[in-house]
Design brief:
With 226 residues, the protein is α+β, with helices and mostly antiparallel strands. Among the domains are: 13-100, Winged helix-like DNA-binding domain superfamily/Winged helix DNA-binding domain (Arc Repressor Mutant, subunit A, Orthogonal Bundle); 175-226, no CATH class. It has helices spanning 19-25, 28-34, 44-51, 55-68, 106-129, 155-164, 180-200, 221-224, and strands spanning 13-15, 42-43, 71-77, 84-89, 93-95, 136-141, 148-153. It has a 3-stranded antiparallel sheet with strand order 2-4-3. Strands 1-5 form a two-stranded parallel sheet. It has a two-stranded antiparallel sheet with strand order 6-7. A hairpin with a 6-residue loop joins strand 6 (136-141) and strand 7 (148-153). Helix 3 (44-51) crosses helix 4 (55-68). The longest helix is centred in the middle third of the chain and has 24 residues, at 106-129. The model is unreliable at 1-5 (pLDDT under 50).
Length: 226
Amino acid sequence: MQQMILGSFEGDWFEVRDPVQARLLTDPNARNLLAPFIGAERSLTQAAQEVGCSLQRLAYRVQQFQDAGLLREVRQQRRSGRPVRFYRAVADGFHVPFEYTPFDDLEAMMARLYLPSDRQRNRVIARRAMRSAQVGRRIYRDAVSGELNNESDPGEDLLLRTRQEASPGNDVTLTVWLSDQEAQHFAQAFEDLYRRLEAARRPTGEGQAYLVRFGLLPLTGEDLNP
């Protein structure tokens, strides 16, 4: 069995046993606003700058997180006027059993969890494609594999400019047929690439941000004929 890719973790786990906590932690928008406080203490101003939202919006969420038992105030910094309050999540990591989430099934939960990145991916691909007036689709049967391909057609002008850009980028989704040995080889290659990306990761705001998605999932007949 292929080993699951997990990041390094140091700290205490919080086992969720409350539907309200589970709903907030599986809501990408809410979790994004809790993220600055997980494993670190932040003031409202620091956290708002980190996630790029207004203080008013974050203050509402902070109160919501406190009421749900996910966040606590850890200290105050004295100054003239009101003190600066610092907050931290109640644990360094959270484990959310599916039974406490608001979803009917795992597929619905995964669709909700990946919705923000799916929208982000589609927006970036569309923006890059619109740089060319020749954008379209190419539908044809591959002469080698016999598979029917349905690909974006960015045009040669866009392809040339993309190669010349300071910030490289590409996006590929395809279905391939592999032997078990070949699948194991590529799965290991993806895990190695993941480790390399983790090692190269820079602090937020330093360098260019990239969306990275890759994987190798076995398909059944139902998946091939939805």
